[in-house]
Amino acid sequence: MTDDKCGITAVFPGSFDPITVGHIDLIERSVAVFDKVIVAVACNQEKTPLFSVSERISMIENIFSHTPQVKVETFAGLLINYMLSGEAHVILRGLRAVSDFEYEFQMALMNRKLAPGIETFFMTSSALYTYVSSRIVKELASLGGDVSDLVHPLVEEKIKEKYSGS
Ligand code: ADP
To answer: What is the distance in A from the centroid of ligand 1 to the CA of 86?
Structure first.
C-alpha cells in the first residue's frame, strides 16, 4: 500500500481528565489517517480537574511512548488561537452519539468563522466505546467502582492513588 497521508497533522483537543479507552481508540485509528496527531490537553481554569495538566500529559505520553506519530501538547484559552500559532490546519474531534453532535457542530462552525483555513474533522467512536467518557470514569471510580475496562492500566493505577488519598 502506498503512503498517501500527504503529511497532514491533526490536533485532537480535549480535557483528557483522564484519557479513556475511547480516546485511545480514536487516537490509534487517527494515526492510520494522519501523519502526525497532536493530542492537545486543555488547561481550563474554570473546571476543577481530577488530574493536573502535567499528570494528564504524562499519562498520555506514557501510553503512546511507542507511537512516534503522537505528540502531546497543552494549550490555554481559545483552541483556535492555539491552532493559529502552529502549523496544523485540522482539528480532530470524536463523536459518540447524536447528543455530541449539536455542540460539536456549533463549535466547528464557530471555529471556521474565526479561522476559515482550519477545518474540523470528526471520527465516530467505536461502537464498543460509545458510552465511555472521562466523567463516567470519575463518577464510577469515586464510588469505588471498577474502571479497568474504561481506562489504560496505568491510568487505573493513578485513579486508585487519587481516590485512596496516597
Ligand atoms: P472535552 O473536555 O472537550 O469534552 P474530552 O476530553 O471529553 O473533551 O474529549 C476529547 C475528545 O475526545 C472529544 O472530541 C470527544 O468527543 C472525544 N471522545 C471522548 N470520549 C470518546 C469516546 N468514548 N469515543 C470517541 N471519542 C471520544
So the answer is: 22
